[in-house]
Design goal:
With 185 residues, the protein is an alpha+beta fold. The chain has 4 helices and 8 strands, in the order ββααβαβββββα.
Length: 185
């Protein structure tokens, strides 16, 4: 198990998923990874989260994460997602989400708000990958309140690799593929 330490967040990555999860994703077996139902059936958005997260990140909701209603603000959820993504890339040896000189661009974002969270709550975030293609893929995130185990939100954040020097989308970098055990795109 690899660790990335920072203060106050902490996170770990479990390498065992490389042999199971990525193999299944690359061979079209996504449905077997997402068997649990959505937390609430009346939600307009449904993000299924797999059983095999590849990265764990912990953070504490600060006063600056709250909105005027006193709970976790939606814009701060986007910031938390970005912090988790950055920590994951850093744990792979790619600080700043730069791999072999190639960066990423977020292509889309979908959120499911499931429960409120408040100042002082500890959130455990899990990150998984899905729909990997030759240009990028989707990061799936699930946030759970550590104090009571309540799921707070789920998110899907699409990303593509982008070569800023050429101003165009790029294939997955070789270093990224090697760090995840993927074949070159």
């Amino acid at each position: 198990m690899f660790s990335w330490s920072a203060s106050p967040p902490s996170c770990t990555i479990t390498p065992a998923w490389r042999h199971i999860g990525v193999y299944l994703w690359l061979h079209g077996c996504q449905t077997t990874l997402f068997p649990q139902p959505s937390p609430r059936t009346n939600m307009r958005v449904n993000i299924q989260f797999p059983y095999n997260p590849i990265f764990h990140y912990r953070m504490v909701i600060g006063k600056d994460h709250e909105n005027i209603a006193g709970h976790l603000a939606h814009d701060k959820v986007v910031t938390i997602i970005g912090d988790c993504r950055d920590a994951w890339f850093a744990s792979l040896g790619f600080p700043g989400c730069v791999v072999d000189g190639i960066s990423i661009v977020n292509s889309d974002l979908m959120l499911m708000y499931i429960a409120e969270a408040f100042h002082g709550d500890e959130l455990d975030l899990e990150l998984a990958l899905a729909d990997i293609n030759k240009y990028g893929g989707d990061m799936l995130l699930r946030a759970t309140r550590r104090q009571d185990g309540s799921e707070v939100f789920r998110a899907k954040s699409g990303f593509v690799f982008f070569d800023y020097s050429k101003r165009k989308v790029s294939h997955r970098p070789v270093g990224f593929n090697a760090s995840l055990g993927l074949e070159d795109a």
